[in-house]
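Dear colleagues,

For the upcoming journal club I promised to circulate an example of a predicted protein-ligand complex. I picked one with iron/sulfur cluster because it came up in last month's discussion. The inputs are reproduced below in full, followed by the predicted structure.
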Amino acid sequence: MAEYKMESLKTFNYDRPVIEKGYANQTLCIDISDGVISIKPVTEKMKNVFIGGKGFDLWLLWNAVNSTTKWNDPENAICIASGPMGGTPVYPGSGKSIVTTISPLTGSVIDSNVGGYFGPYLKFSGFDALEVMGKTSKDIVIFIDGIDEKVQIFKASGLPDDSYTLSAILTEHFAKGRPRNISVVSTGPGAKNTRMGCLNFTWYDLKRKRARYKQAGRGGIGGVFADKGIKAIVARWDTVTTKTNNPANANTLKEVGRKHSREVVELDPKQNQMAQIGTTHLVTIMNDFDLLPTHNFQYGQHSEADNIGQEVFRRIFDPGYDGCWMGCTLACSHGVKDFVPLTGPYKGTKVFVDGPEYETIAGCGSNLGIFDPHTIIEMNFYCDTYGLDTISVGTSTAFAMECFEMGLINETHTHGMNLSFGNRLAALEVVHQMARGKGFGQIIGRGVRQMKIIFSRDYGADPDLMQDIGMEAKGLEFSEYMTKESLAQQGGYGLALKGPQHDEAWLIFLDMVHNFMPTFEQKAEALHWFPMFRTWFGLCGLCKLPWNDVIPEDNKDTPEPAKVMKHVEWYADYYTAVTGRQTTPDVLIRMSEAVYNFQRIFNLKMGFGQREHDNIPYRAVGPVKAVEYESRAERYDKQLVEKNNVDITGKTTEEKIALLREFREKLYEKLKDAVYKRRGWTNNGIPTVETVKRLGIDFPEVLELLRAYGVES
Amino acid sequence: MIKVNGEKHSWYEGMTIKDLLKDVNNSHLYAVIRINEKHISRPYFEKTLVPDNSEVFLIPMIAGG
Ligand code: SF4
């Protein structure tokens, strides 16, 4: 174990409040520049409008930053919150934390929903949310001790940089013999040296006797954390029971919790088997439907996809209970035991790897032309250990590889590295370079948007071509689904508040495979309802997987099977049982609408949040290059002829690509119109005064901002 | 004899998944099925044979990610 020192700089004692109906009713604010620690009350208005979780985070962040705040300014805050239901052990998927900050990739607000014990332990320690602002040149560790009712700031020296060992050391350091009482938030050297740093949130695995972690991956939150000089934030709490959250009606809560838990236990083995194989089942399914991104989203299928599918990971995962929160019966957070990396600082050492999930397999595997599970697991391990987001790493490396193969960049730029698709050692070396902030990996670590600027400015690469094939929107790299044949999912990505992440809307199957939404109005309705309901999970401290990854057997006979309304009704009952506030499914949507619109307006405050910011690269819409078109020529030709009445006789591939592009880009703009209308926004994508009034977010500063953009009643 | 979602179901030589789904209500909702441990998606329903004594699970897949 490393020699390290922790010197206490500040101790703040407090009286822990009793949790009332899921709320601690106060938040913790720590300014690390001067070590000032304070407590802020949570008002009834805050609870009514923002509910909790991401809603509280956004409100705290909105008040902390101004319109010119940059990600690395001291006033930028990292906000972490659970939610009123967060920390409930009897309902599956009830331990999420939501993190927000101003992102180094997008320049606007980013949010990430993550497992592990931190959010619930923070709340039970007395705080619905934590906001950390300021900056320090020291390495500090913040310790929130709910058992001894104190918050401490330590100056740390000698601690390891990487998150894997750091999490283990800090768990032991603060545990006082009970490691399950500890949750550590940390990052690694990759976060310092790139724009795509993630945060690791731990939970303690009693059976395997080790701290394990989940990632708040998207948008470079880890970079903000590292830039502030924070080594780790640690929470300590005691035993958790249903009573700890002091629900309004414990009996109803237990009843509805048991129903959902029982259903998961009964049906998951018959359906996706997530308790055994996590989300890896998606790999071959996506491949079968031409939706698995390969070679930088050029294609959706590859003959070797089976090599990285569920049948392989079923054998590789270490069997056992893998819930990232207590009592989650879906327990999908699997890992690989005794893995031995072939490269890097852990080369030849046995390690435990948390993951991989589907996104990592697709991002660090198929999208790079890599179909070897060992390499994917090693990329997964080092990304987590270095504090890097596997999705941004994958999508950014895929872009660099395509640029390399097209000759837009060459070995002079990559410092001799052969970045061809499928080069496993090169992909791993990129990750190590990102951690060191050296070599070409350091350029890739700036993300797709910056690479486009650098390649064009410094290497003379064609900016228009890179605009088409660089898979980012709003500055954030796309997560790992092909969208060319699903207009609704193009909207799911392009119209998402933070950038192209599928947590707002995953409509590919509903749209493309089931054809549930053939009209624009139906797509717009789906792009209203689904983002709203998915937002709601982040307000309450919940995981969305138990909602629609386990489907009741009678769901197919319901009027709207896509919404899984039986579960939505259970969630309404769950909310009522915890908070005591009577609710219905429609009210849940209305809760999210307020926060969702507020986040859109937050984007506007930061200089974004208008129609032009919802644009997506053409690669997400249709084939950019002749090889892409020709690989699926029958499909595209048919669409040109049957849907668009084009006579394709004698037309070259380039002419057909141009025609298809014209049609498809028009459809995307039409989709924007329909969605904006459905959401109560102007044609420029800004919520109207009527909308903000209806949702109770018509604060003076909101109205003033809308006025500045010409939106008045 | 095979089992479909836990219920016994008759089987015949040469039965494909597409054939099997003719006996299932609202079968259009199933784009993925699992035979024992192997997932098979709709594009392969027509050419995939269901083996005798297999356990078939109809996966109502509407989510992901
Ligand atoms: S379903 Fe998976 S990700 Fe969600 S809470 Fe349970 S273990 Fe965690």
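Two points we might discuss: Chain A touches chain B through 38 residues (CB under 8 Å). The longest strand of chain A covers residues 5-13.

See you all on Thursday,
B. R.
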